[in-house]
User: What shape does this take?
Amino acid sequence: MSIDHLIAARLQRLRKLQGLTIETLAAKSGVSRGMISKIEGGTAAPARASVG
Assistant: This one.
């Protein structure tokens, strides 16, 4: 399983454990609802922070 799939599964699991909807998580995080949905669905990957 790729790191992107692991992140997607963990994001969805933690969101649900906290009782958050995608809409609520989007509002709290500043990430769009569509992007969270794509990440959880495995059709997009979160941006990787550059270390510098």
User: Anything to note?
Assistant: The mean pLDDT is 91.
